[in-house]
Design goal:
By secondary structure, this protein is of the alpha+beta class. The chain has three domains: about 5-75 and about 130-150, Ribosomal Protein S5, domain 2; about 80-120, no CATH class; about 155-290, no CATH class. The protein has eight helices and six strands. The strands form two sheets. A four-stranded mixed sheet has the order 1-2-4-3. Helix 4 runs antiparallel to helix 6 (about 220-240) and helix 4 packs antiparallel against helix 8.
Length: about 290
């Protein structure tokens, strides 16, 4: 069973005077990449939250939010705007700009908000043990929902992979229809070219030896066998408990090598068309493998 890296989970912890809301979104990434937006009250718990997310989610770009909403429906305020001080700063800066011939800021609000004491932080009470336990319960529920979401997405990906692999396998079988014809065409083309050189005398036995050597170099049986093994290994990895996106990506790369070699050796229009179709199916696999955990 494979899991997608795409997921979503949300949970709410009910407290007598407020709610703690936890929301997690994940997308694909080569490693664990956590972006956090949390209430100031929970800053002391940031490392614990990060460690739990890393342990449970393993890999992916994680967007984590934890905020508090009072029971009157308003969100927790991050701070209070000191309007009088902001007005004072604006007046002073505007006068200074005029006096010294300095250009005024293009974005006054952004400039003023960075000045000291314009935003005064609300007093943060200590996080109680009961509230932290409630928040942990909400975190566990949000993670559970997200993993369920990943599992459902993983099932859809697996169905798509199986369809792609079956199609490549069918195309590989169809290559056999043209192999004998391909060898015969090569023989005929070389013979026709030699017949045009009527003034050139050549050793027929040596020609046969060189022709056999040339045809052997174009033999694709090994490539077909290796590609068939890779297809089987890909499905086997899908079904294993430790099936991972990175491993599937490596197998897809090996499949690509064999398909490319088939294309370079085919020397036959119909076989080359089949190779193009194989590459199309493989590109779909490679694109979706990036979403697998």
């Amino acid at each position: 069973m494979i899991l997608s890296m795409t997921g979503y989970g949300k949970a709410i912890a009910e407290l007598p005077d407020k709610k703690v809301l936890v929301e997690i979104k994940t997308l694909n990434s080569k490693a664990i990449d956590i972006s956090m937006r949390i209430s100031p009250l929970y800053r002391e718990k940031e490392m614990e939250l990060r460690n739990e997310l890393s342990k449970q989610l393993v890999r992916g770009k994680v967007d984590f939010s934890l905020w508090i909403e009072r029971n009157d429906g308003t969100a927790e305020a991050a701070g209070t705007l000191n309007a009088a001080l902001l007005r004072h700063y604006y007046t002073e800066l505007k006068a200074a700009a005029s006096e010294f011939g300095i250009p005024e800021p293009g974005d006054w609000l952004s400039t003023l908000l960075r000045l000291p004491d314009v935003l005064t932080k609300n007093e943060i009470t200590e996080l109680s043990k009961e509230e932290w336990q409630a928040a942990q319960t909400a975190l566990a529920e949000a993670i559970r929902q997200l993993i369920d979401f990943r599992r459902q997405e993983g099932q859809a990906l697996e169905a798509r992979f199986r369809s792609n692999i079956d199609r490549i396998r069918q195309l590989l079988v169809s290559v056999g229809d043209y192999e004998k014809e391909r060898v015969q065409r090569i023989r005929e083309r070389i013979s026709e070219s030699l017949e045009k050189l009527s003034s050139v005398d050549y050793d027929q036995n040596r020609l046969e030896q060189e022709l056999i050597y040339y045809i052997e170099k174009l033999d694709i049986n090994e490539e077909k066998q290796r590609l068939g093994n890779h297809l089987h290994y890909f499905i086997e990895t899908l079904e294993s408990e430790d099936g991972q996106g990175k491993k599937l990506g490596f197998i897809a790369q090996e499949m690509g090598r064999e398909i490319n070699t088939l294309g370079s050796k085919s020397n036959h229009a119909e076989m080359q068309k089949i190779v193009v179709q194989m590459k199309d199916e493989l590109e779909q696999i490679k694109e979706q493998v990036l979403n697998v955990l």
